[in-house]
Design brief:
It is built from 4 helices and no strands. With 147 residues, it is mostly helical.
Length: 147
């Protein structure tokens, strides 16, 4: 089946138009070789340095602490708690008992990760308590120096 000449001509015209647009767009964008203005920061003059230090972190401390405590509670839970180390140990035992070696290996890797996560979260909670103390001291000095 032959295509009508008008359809072929329309397709060729579209290709020519696209090609000509691409050919002119390249030199037009290359003509503007002036460098873009550098981004300036509010602290570039050195006057605002140190203002509001820790403000965002101090406001997030309670939420972060709650999240870490929730994760530690889940990890330290019993065999019926989803996400606990004890539950994962049970799953590994069951996989070994059923001779599902690939599944047991996969679950053992996850168990290893969870066991490594517990001391990390405990350390982060301890560090967060130090940050909380720092925030409290910072708030006390800010409130006490006003009068």
């Amino acid at each position: 089946m032959q295509r009508p000449k008008s359809a072929v001509a329309g397709v060729l015209a579209a290709f020519v138009l696209t090609g000509s647009l691409l050919a002119t767009a390249g030199p037009a964008s290359a003509a503007d070789d002036s460098p873009a203005p550098a981004a300036t920061t509010s602290h570039s003059d050195g006057k605002g340095k140190g203002k509001g230090k820790g403000k965002g972190l101090c406001s997030r401390v309670p939420r972060i602490e709650k999240r870490i405590n929730k994760a530690l509670g889940r990890l330290n839970g019993d065999a019926h708690t989803r996400g606990s180390i004890a539950r994962m140990e049970e799953r590994v035992k069951k996989a070994h008992a059923k001779n599902h070696d690939a599944v047991a290996t996969f679950l053992q890797d996850r168990l290893t990760h969870r066991k490594e996560l517990r001391p990390t979260l405990t350390r982060e909670l301890r560090d967060l308590k130090a940050v909380s103390t720092w925030c409290a001291k910072k708030d006390d000095t800010k409130g006490g120096s006003g009068s």
